[in-house]
């Protein structure tokens, strides 16, 4: 250790506080994962023994004869579709919007920037009720789009912030250089701005995808018989038949999320950042 | 010389911001003949970068015309102007290899990929980045000097009608900058492309250019070949900006004898200077330290001054003196004229009237 490092008691204190915090954050997740491997059919903790029986059970729920009855696969598909559409819509709106906010000065610009933070402080329950009223008043069947719309409104700030940060890291002189070299504004955007924003966009997509995939409150207000997201499925299962299979599904959901993060990191995290001079 | 012979022509170009409160460029008229390299020299904030950005089409003039090879470019976008610009930040695309960077301009012009490959190789050779070693490299693997060459190659490969340089060497160290200045000039002459080089560094400007335009406060103060600017500055600002200068203020004109006139300066001493129309009370007498003589004894007509400091740098002795009223003077030579003198001692400072110049206050 260098001479500037922290010593003795101070170091021990910081270390133990950090350890406790990490333990507090990870404990519920760890319990879910541990419980998913229980050999018992009760919710006894710690489990009396370990097995993969609940994963097998989930396999049957997803693929067996009863699959259409349990609707697990269908819920998963619905959640993935909602998350993907939400992330897509958010990026579609955020890329041009962030470009306008960062590169141009126009009246009301700061107001727009402030408004972007609003959905974050807006209670999801209130938004859920409001949207539910809107949907019933309209009398139109929106299907999965009503959840997508709610998620897009709520999670837009996340892609916006990622895009704004990414764009602020793109030197405007790079765009000007492209233009003096003969590139049209559109080609400049496609060839210079977008590739340099790539990592920021990817992380924004990832964040919104995961937030949307796991979202419960809004989905609870807006789900229908045909559109039944996984979070609602988990909630209903835990209300009706509290079997450890739910833990297995939850654990799989966690693995799914981690898998996506690692994939994005592998694609943009290393390559995307490597060639950008700081 | 006809208009067509000029690669660039600026006519009373102005650029005002904030409803005319800020006059970044305030009436600049200049012309750059084909093949010439002109430096625009000035302190930061003098408007030189704004002027350059207007030529490239990145800024719109408030007034005046810009002609490139005789064609008025008002209303043309940057990509329609065929003007190359090498940025101060170099603006090498970080997400493209050297080859892709250099090929960018050609690709935007829809040049066939075979031709692009050949041209990129040629220009990389020209800027001394052998393609075998450098084509596949990423910008973050290159040194400052190499990035500079990439930026230059990327601009030159499109054969622009005019190349603009916005202090691209400001970040390089002195030695590399001097080297690159010489090389840049050689490449520019070889390709025969007219160039405008913006800088605040008079040494780079002198090394590099056929002519220098000194700018201050949005206006061009003087245009001419580097020796003229140095030896015959139009005013005090130019004199001080393009090198060290001794400056004395005319107090009273004592006598005029043909070309030579004797004056009493405000500092109290007498001095023989070359006469000109600005030789009136308050006019500034300018002479260079390199043409200033110093002596331990009065050679006749010298000004008595106190030796303040002596230094030696790169083969030159440099003396700092002070007149009785506190005005400082300096002199430099390769020979140590004051070897026997020590600081605090009186010395005599003189200058050949031929090497003096009197300008407006």
What share of the residues of chain B lie within helices?
Answer: 25-40%
End-to-end C-alpha gap of chain A: 28 Å
The CATH superfamily of the domain at 69-240 in chain A is identified as MetI-like
Task: Please compute the radius of gyration of chain A using only Cα atoms.
Answer: 23 Å
Taken in chain order, the helices and strands of chain A follow as HHHHHHHHHHHHHH
Could you please say which CATH topology of the domain at 69-240 in chain A applies here? MetI-like fold
Q: What is the annotated CATH architecture of the largest domain in chain B? A: 3-Layer(aba) Sandwich
Give the rounded overall mean pLDDT of chain B. 89
Structural class call of chain A reads mainly alpha
Main beta-sheet annotation of chain A: none
* Uncertain segments of chain B: none
Tell me, what is the CATH class of the domain at 69-240 in chain A? Mainly Alpha
Helix segment count of chain A? Answer: 14
- Residue runs with pLDDT of under 50 for 5 or more positions of chain A: 271-278
Q: Please summarize the sheet with the most strands of chain B.
A: 6 strands, mixed
CATH homolog superfamily of the largest domain in chain B: P-loop containing nucleotide triphosphate hydrolases
Describe the oligomeric state of these chains in a short phrase.
Answer: heterodimer
Subcellular location (chain A): Cell inner membrane; Cell membrane
Membrane topology (chain A): Multi-pass membrane protein
Transmembrane segments (chain A): 12-37, 78-102, 114-137, 143-160, 201-225, 245-268
InterPro entries (chain A): MetI-like, MetI-like_sf
């Amino acid at each position: 250790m260098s001479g500037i490092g922290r010593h003795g008691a101070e170091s021990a204190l910081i270390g133990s506080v950090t350890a406790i915090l990490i333990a507090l954050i990870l404990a519920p997740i760890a319990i879910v994962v541990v419980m998913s491997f229980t050999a018992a059919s009760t919710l006894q903790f710690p489990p009396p023994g370990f097995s993969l029986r609940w994963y097998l059970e989930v396999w049957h729920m997803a693929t067996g004869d009863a699959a259409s009855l349990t609707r697990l696969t269908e819920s998963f598909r619905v959640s993935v579709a909602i998350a993907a559409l939400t992330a897509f819509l958010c990026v579609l709106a955020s890329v041009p919007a962030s470009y306008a906010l960062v590169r141009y000065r126009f009246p009301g610009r700061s107001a727009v920037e402030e408004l972007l933070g609003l959905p974050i402080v807006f209670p999801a329950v209130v938004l859920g009720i409001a949207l539910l009223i809107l949907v019933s008043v309209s009398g139109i069947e929106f299907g999965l789009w009503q959840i997508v719309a709610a998620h897009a409104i709520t999670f837009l700030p996340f892609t916006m912030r990622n895009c704004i940060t990414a764009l602020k890291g793109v030197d405007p002189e790079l765009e000007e250089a492209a233009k003096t070299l003969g590139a049209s504004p559109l080609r400049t955007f496609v060839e210079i701005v977008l590739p340099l924003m790539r990592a920021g966009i990817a992380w924004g997509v990832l964040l919104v995808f995961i937030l949307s995939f796991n979202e419960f409150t809004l989905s609870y207000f807006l789900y229908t018989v045909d559109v039944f997201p996984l979070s609602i499925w988990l909630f209903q299962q835990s209300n009706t038949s509290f079997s450890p299979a739910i833990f297995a599904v939850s654990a799989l959901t966690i693995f799914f999320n981690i898998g996506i993060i690692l994939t994005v990191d592998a694609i943009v995290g290393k390559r995307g950042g490597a060639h950008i001079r700081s | 010389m006809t208009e067509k012979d000029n690669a660039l022509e600026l006519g009373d170009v102005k650029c005002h911001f904030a409803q005319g409160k800020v006059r970044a460029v305030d009436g600049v008229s200049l012309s750059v003949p084909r093949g010439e390299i002109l430096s625009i020299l000035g302190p930061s904030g003098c408007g030189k970068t704004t002027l350059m950005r207007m030529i490239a089409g990145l800024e719109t003039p408030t007034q005046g015309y810009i002609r490139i090879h005789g064609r008025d470019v008002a209303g043309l976008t940057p990509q329609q102007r065929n003007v190359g610009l090498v940025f101060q930040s170099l603006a090498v695309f970080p997400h493209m290899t050297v080859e892709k960077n250099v090929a960018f301009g050609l690709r935007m012009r829809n040049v066939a990929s075979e031709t692009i490959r050949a041209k990129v190789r040629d220009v990389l050779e020209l800027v001394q980045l052998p393609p075998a070693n450098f084509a596949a490299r990423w910008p973050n693997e290159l040194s400052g000097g190499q990035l500079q060459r990439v930026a230059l190659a990327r601009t030159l490969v499109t054969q622009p009608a005019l190349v603009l340089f916005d202090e691209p060497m400001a970040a390089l160290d002195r030695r590399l900058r001097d080297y690159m200045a010489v090389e840049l000039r050689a490449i520019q002459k070889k390709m025969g492309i007219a160039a405008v080089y913006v800088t605040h560094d008079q040494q780079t400007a002198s090394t590099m250019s056929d002519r220098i335009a000194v700018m201050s406060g949005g206006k061009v103060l003087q245009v001419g070949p580097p020796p003229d600017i140095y030896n015959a500055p139009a005013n005090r600002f130019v004199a001080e900006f393009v090198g060290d200068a001794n400056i004395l203020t005319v107090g009273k004109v004592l006598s005029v004898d043909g070309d030579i006139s004797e004056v009493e300066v405000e500092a109290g001493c007498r001095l023989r200077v070359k006469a000109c129309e600005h030789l009136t009370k308050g006019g500034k007498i300018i002479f260079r330290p390199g043409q200033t003589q110093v002596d331990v004894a009065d050679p006749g007509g010298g000004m008595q001054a106190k030796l303040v400091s002596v230094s030696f740098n790169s083969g030159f002795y440099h003396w700092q003196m002070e007149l009785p009223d506190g005005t400082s003077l300096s002199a430099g030579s390769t020979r140590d004229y004051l070897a026997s003198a020590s600081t605090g001692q009186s010395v005599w400072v003189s200058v050949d009237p031929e090497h003096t110049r009197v300008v407006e206050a």
